[in-house]
Amino acid sequence: MIIYTDGGASPNPGLGGWGALLVSPGHGGAERELYGAEPDTTNNRMELTAAIRALGALRYPCRVELHTDSTYLRNAFEKGWLEKWRKNGWQTSGKQPVQNRDLWEELWELSRTHDVRWHWVKGHAGDERNNRCDALVQRAKDEYLAGARGAGELSA
């Protein structure tokens, strides 16, 4: 499974949106888009939410290539930050509480279900799938402002 995710809030904190694109190479490249919005949140919470919702949408354990433009998200796994936070009682190396612990705990559990490889992509740099996720973030915020206050899903 190939997954692209994005999230953002504007202003930060403020109205936030998240988007995810799931591509199933084994099923003819079938694609599924997920998105949603929250009224008072941060960029980081939306980046985490996108990954949580994408992994949570998978029906069975599988190998996942997850692409994100969030170094916060990728580095937590690839540089071992998340493992250290867990071992330190959810404190940073500076002995401060880890921000977004609730989402990190949920994402940790989901990441144990799947074989996830984390990839960083530069945002707003021409990556078609990252751009689609960015558009889903904006769509989620636009729909929220228009009164459709929830999450959506599109299948291709």
How would you summarize the topology of this molecule?
Blueprint: E1 2-10, E2 14-24, E3 30-41, H1 43-56, E4 63-68, H2 71-78, H3 81-87, H4 101-113, E5 115-120, H5 128-145, E6 151-155
Helix pairs in contact: 1-4
Helix content: 25-40%
Q: What string gives the helices and strands in order?
A: EEEHEHHHEHE
Mean pLDDT: 92
Strand order of the largest sheet: 5-4-1-2-3-6
Helix/strand-derived category reads alpha/beta
Rg is 15 Å
Approximate shape = globular
Number of helices: 5
Please give a structural write-up.
Helix content is 38%, strand content 31%. It is α/β, with parallel strands linked by helices and 156 residues long. A hairpin with a 3-residue loop joins strand 1 (2-10) and strand 2. Helix 1 packs parallel to helix 4 (101-113). The two termini are 15 Å apart.
In short:
With 156 residues, the chain is of the alpha/beta class. Helix content is 38%, strand content 31%. It is built from five helices and six strands; from the N terminus they run βββαβαααβαβ.
Task: Label this structure with key terms.
single chain, 156 residues, alpha/beta, six-stranded mixed sheet, 5 helices
